TrEMBL record:
<feature type="transmembrane region" description="Helical">
    <location>
        <begin position="180"/>
        <end position="203"/>
    </location>
</feature>
<feature type="transmembrane region" description="Helical">
    <location>
        <begin position="275"/>
        <end position="294"/>
    </location>
</feature>
<dbReference type="InterPro" id="IPR010651">
    <property type="entry name" value="Sugar_transport"/>
</dbReference>
<feature type="transmembrane region" description="Helical">
    <location>
        <begin position="62"/>
        <end position="80"/>
    </location>
</feature>
<protein>
    <submittedName>
        <fullName>GRP family sugar transporter</fullName>
    </submittedName>
</protein>
<keyword id="KW-1133">Transmembrane helix</keyword>
<feature type="transmembrane region" description="Helical">
    <location>
        <begin position="247"/>
        <end position="266"/>
    </location>
</feature>
<feature type="transmembrane region" description="Helical">
    <location>
        <begin position="6"/>
        <end position="22"/>
    </location>
</feature>
<feature type="transmembrane region" description="Helical">
    <location>
        <begin position="117"/>
        <end position="138"/>
    </location>
</feature>
<feature type="transmembrane region" description="Helical">
    <location>
        <begin position="150"/>
        <end position="168"/>
    </location>
</feature>
<keyword id="KW-0812">Transmembrane</keyword>
<dbReference type="Pfam" id="PF06800">
    <property type="entry name" value="Sugar_transport"/>
</dbReference>
<feature type="transmembrane region" description="Helical">
    <location>
        <begin position="34"/>
        <end position="56"/>
    </location>
</feature>
<keyword id="KW-0813">Transport</keyword>
<comment type="similarity">
    <text>Belongs to the GRP transporter (TC 2.A.7.5) family.</text>
</comment>
<feature type="transmembrane region" description="Helical">
    <location>
        <begin position="215"/>
        <end position="235"/>
    </location>
</feature>
<keyword id="KW-0472">Membrane</keyword>
Length: 295
């Protein structure tokens, strides 16, 4: 494994690690965030496709790639809504845990991963660690019924959002193209969802169109960070780079940066004891992620 491959594999650490914090810092409503983010992703994907001379795939490859982007955008809208409830520093470990659980269970039941009793036992232990780690990141010293209710609502939202993230990962498996060729149609699917969501809200709330709000276009910048992470992960997962297993492990390091930058730069304060338990929880999540891909 060479240095270049490792550096590319750590691209998601920066991209996905900073994306939720930047999006939260720019502000606006979830609809502003998803519109600008997906527009930024599409611009990034278009430039990448043009520079590399890539054309759009056709037939079912195109359809499944677009559906992959649709799944991500729906899930991300839900995730942005959870940010307004509990903040990105608490929401990101939870959504990462759900994605790890979803990927692992999909691998076991659909792809035949973890064959044998010992592998399933070790995998089950890893899933328990993921759940425990996620719980530790949202643990608070000051417990109130109101806070518990808000946290429960956010967790339910993120659990539903996992369906979209699962589609984002699973749909490309039905195609005959690699991730880099699926990148542009994925971005198209993302922007389509954002546009439909924007129109529905404008009609429902009878407010001015999100397309005319400046904050929507500021989020193009955050979209570049997501696109950079997605692309470097696709490259990292190639067999001649880090491979899928190692590439996946490296990409999960983003949860640490996303959580810590949310605390440091967004004023999502934690007590000293809460911070200690949060860090332990993050370590458990990363350790469990490593276990699941090495079984």
């Amino acid at each position: 494994m060479n240095t270049t491959a490792i550096l590319i594999g750590l691209g998601p650490l920066l991209g996905w690690g900073l994306y939720p914090t930047i999006a939260s810092k720019i502000g606006g409503r979830p609809v502003n965030q998803i519109l600008g983010s997906t527009l930024g992703t599409l611009i990034f994907a278009l430039v990448f496709a043009i520079v590399n001379g890539m054309s759009l795939p056709t037939g079912m490859d195109l359809i499944f790639s677009i559906l992959s982007g649709v799944g991500w955008a729906i899930a991300q809208i839900i995730t942005f809504q959870s940010f307004t409830l509990i903040g990105s520093s608490r929401a990101m470990p939870i959504t990462t845990a759900f994605q790890l659980l979803g990927a692992s269970l999909w691998g076991v039941f659909a792809l035949g991963d973890w064959p044998g009793a010992s592998a399933k036992l070790l995998g089950g232990f890893a899933l328990v660690l993921i759940i425990l780690g996620a719980w530790m990141t949202v643990w608070t010293e000051e417990k109130t019924q109101e806070k518990a209710s808000i946290l429960k609502k956010a967790v339910l939202l993120l659990a539903v959002g996992e369906i979209g993230y699962w589609a984002y990962s699973a749909a490309p498996q039905a195609t005959s193209i690699d991730g880099m060729h699926a990148f542009l149609p994925q971005a198209i699917g993302m922007l389509l969802v954002a546009l439909v969501y924007s129109v529905i809200l404008s009609v429902k709330d009878k407010e001015k169109s999100v397309l005319t709000e400046a904050v929507s276009y500021k989020h193009i910048f955050s979209g570049f960070f997501f696109a950079f992470a997605a692309l470097t992960y696709l490259i990292s997962a190639q067999p001649n780079m880090n491979g899928l297993a190692t590439g996946f492990i490296l990409s999960q390091t983003s949860v640490v940066l996303a959580t810590l930058t949310g605390i440091w730069f967004l004023g999502q304060k934690k007590t000293k004891k809460e911070m200690t338990i949060t860090i332990i929880g993050l370590v458990l999540i990363l350790a469990a992620a490593t276990m699941t891909v090495m079984i």
